[in-house]
Write a structure and sequence with these properties.
Elements (H helix, E strand, L loop, with lengths): L5 H9 L10 H10 L3 E4 L8 H10 L3 E4 L3 H13 L4 E4 L5 H12 L5 E4 L1 H4 L4 H8 L3 E4 L18 H8 L4 E6 L4 H11 L5 E4 L7 E2 L2 E3 L3 H10 L5 E5 L3 H13 L3 E5 L5 H13 L3 E5 L12 E6 L6 H8 L9 E7 L1 H13 L4 H19 L4 H8 L19 E3 L1 H13 L6 H9 L4 H5 L16 H13 L3 E5 L3 E5 L1 H7 L6 E3 L5 H5 L8 H21 L3 H4 L2 H10 L4 H4 L7 H18 L2
Parallel strand pairs: 1-6, 1-7, 2-4, 2-5, 3-4, 5-6, 8-14, 9-14, 10-12, 10-13, 11-12, 13-14
Antiparallel strand pairs: 15-18, 16-17
Helix pairs in contact: 1-3, 2-3, 14-15, 15-16, 15-20, 17-18, 17-20, 17-21, 18-20, 23-25, 23-27
Family: Belongs to the helicase family. RecQ subfamily.
Protein name: DNA helicase RecQ
EC number: 5.6.2.4
Length: 599
């Protein structure tokens, strides 16, 4: 490992104002100064940009920085110029004069940092100009974008390797916050002319509290989360553009300064909303994943996911936008079985090679396991990146918010089903066997005749699927076949099956049925028709009162009302959630609605 010159620490203080390097920076900067190829994987907020900025200042030579976002490039240029470092960017938002000045400074050797997008790098004869300017290094920010295995793959990043080759004798430095082994291997192959020196630092962000919850009136769940962070800046991620706008409007009604952000907004609105979030305190960005890469706001105090993220890498990258200043930050991720089905369906519908589809399914399964894990969230998250950690004490599991119980009996039932069916079937088939459902597939394989058939009728199919995922996450099950999937027992699974080892499971997957029975999805046609009429009346009253609908009556109240069908005010008092005050305010209106709906 090369030593870091004393001048580096002096410039760190005199130019950047820092007394010392953050963990991992010094060794990467030393390697960059030594001139060989470098690939650095460092967590968000750890100061990756310093790893190429300081060498450019020390060497008084040009570094070309490839970055995916114009807003981030312009922000970095402003920061560098404020420090007295000559920096510029070439991009489509610049005027002709600004781009001409950047090129002049590059030609005359006055420039230390030039920020460009991967598309711009290959445009307008820039390669030829750069060859004449003789830059010392090419730094690629968000290097995971070069890999198809990366969570933000961008085809234009594939051109960077060709550009590096065209530039001749130039050092290549790749930096990213998220890259598993497959992604790192792909980056090395596509960006570097020779194997790079790899720096792989801890993925741990101990200042970020991790919390997950099953969706149960998600707007209310998010509102309760936001109440804990009034006046703070944060991001709420959504799975669709429409959902961002709907949630932003809802939060605005609740008194929050919430702004939508997605790729479908016109450029001026998107820029204005992004700028307000970056520049003002207490603004909430309600966004798709179009927002975030390169967000350089240090005081983001929370990140919420209104819908399940697409992968563990995406989740890690997105929560990493919180707490970049090292101070405590909070997260909440809402998920549902519908989310899981949607994500899996998206993977199945992609036109990709089967090997990639299999790996994407494995990655998504890892996220599902993170959602349902009965052990410390941080331990589970870091284990995905092959990193061990002690219990964090801050996540919802560590703080006792998630019920866990001795799961030996249901685990043994599930493992027995895996064993007796030949250790090659997936969760759906195994759940059918456990519940005693003689489907065509179950009968065809003779699994309606095994001892395990029907021993798990007390749990739903979804609950058994959750238990099987938890067993997989705990290392009691493994993938039976890389080609066909399915589950097989591990040595740990055998120990649990034969009672040599115990296991704790999450309690909440086993109590979902009670909640499901109180949703409109399980009502008969007549009751559902009455519920629809009650909701219509609630909406009218909410508009008249100028309040959210649930302020009138919660869904649970309306469901109970639709089932009990009270005919008098006294009977209405027996409905869940109806007290004297609300009875006096709204009782007559809902009795009238019930009478009309029952005609």
């Amino acid at each position: 490992m090369p030593d870091l010159p004393p001048q580096a620490r002096a410039l760190l203080k005199s130019v950047f104002g820092y007394d010392d390097f953050r963990p991992g920076q010094a060794e990467i900067i030393a390697a960059a100064l030594a001139g060989g190829p470098v690939l650095a994987v460092m967590p968000t907020g750890s100061g990756k940009s310093m790893c190429y900025q300081l060498p450019a200042v020390m060497e008084e030579a040009l570094t070309v920085v490839v970055s995916p976002l114009i807003a981030l490039m312009r922000d970095q240029v402003r920061q560098m110029r404020a420090l007295g470092v000559s920096a510029a960017t070439l991009n489509s938002m610049n005027g002709a004069e600004e781009n001409d000045e950047a090129r002049r400074a590059m030609r005359e050797g006055d420039l230390r940092l030039l920020y460009v997008s991967p598309e711009r790098l290959m445009m307008d004869g820039l390669i030829a100009d750069l060859r004449r300017a003789k830059p010392r290094r090419l730094a690629i920010d968000e290097a995971h974008c070069v890999s198809e295995w990366g969570h933000d793959f961008r085809p234009e990043y594939r051109e960077i390797g060709r550009a590096a080759e065209a530039l001749g004798d130039i050092q290549v430095v790749g930096l990213t916050a998220t890259a598993d082994a497959a992604t790192r291997e792909d980056i090395a192959k596509r960006l570097f002319p020779s194997p790079p020196q790899l720096f792989l630092h801890s993925f741990d962000r101990p200042n970020i509290a991790l919390n997950f919850a099953l969706k149960d009136q998600p707007r209310r769940q998010l509102s309760r989360f936001l109440e804990r962070h009034k006046g703070e800046s944060g991001i709420v991620y959504c799975s669709s553009r429409q959902r961002t706008e709907d949630l932003a409007a809802y939060f605005q009604e609740q008194g929050y300064d919430a702004l939508p952000y997605h790729a479908g907004l016109d450029q001026a609105t998107r820029n204005r909303n992004g700028d307000r979030f970056l520049r003002e305190d207490g603004v909430i960005a309600v966004a798709t994943i179009a927002f975030g890469m390169g967000v350089n706001k240090p005081d983001v105090r929370f990140v919420a996911h209104a819908d399940m993220p697409s992968s563990v890498e995406s989740y890690y990258q997105e929560i990493g936008r919180a707490g970049r200043d090292g101070l405590p930050a909070d997260t909440l991720t809402l998920y549902s079985l519908d989310d899981m089905a949607f994500r899996r369906r998206r993977i199945d519908e992609k036109e990709v090679a089967e090997e990639r589809r299999r790996i994407e399914h494995e990655r998504f399964s890892a996220l599902a396991m993170l959602c349902e894990t009965p052990r410390c969230r941080r331990q589970t998250l870091l284990a995905y990146f092959a990193e061990e950690a002690a219990s964090c004490g801050r996540c919802d599991v560590c703080q006792g918010k998630i019920a866990v119980f001795d799961g030996l009996i249901p685990a043994q039932k599930a493992l027995s089903a895996v064993y007796r069916t030949g250790q090659r079937f997936g969760a759906n088939h195994l759940a059918d066997v456990l519940r005693g459902e003689a489907t065509d597939a179950v009968r065809r394989h003779g699994h309606d005749a095994i001892k395990t058939f029907g021993v798990g009728k007390e749990h739903s199919k979804q609950e058994w699927a959750s238990i099987l995922r938890q067993l997989f996450a705990a290392g009691a099950l493994q993938t039976a076949s890389a080609e066909h999937g399915g589950f097989a027992l591990t040595a740990k699974g055998e120990d649990i099956l034969f009672g040599r080892e115990t296991i704790m499971l999450r309690g909440d997957p086993l109590t979902r049925r009670e909640k499901r029975e109180k949703t409109s999805a399980n009502l008969d046609e007549a009751t559902d028709r009455i519920l629809t009429a009650l909701k219509r009346k609630r909406r009218e009253l909410a508009q008249e009162e100028g309040v959210p609908a649930y302020v009138i009556f919660a869904d649970r109240t309306l469901i109970d009302m639709a089932e009990k069908r009270p005919a008098t005010l006294d009977e209405m008092l027996s409905v869940h959630g109806v007290g004297e005050r609300k009875l006096a305010q709204f009782g007559d209106a809902f009795l009238e609605t019930l009478e009309e709906a029952l005609r």
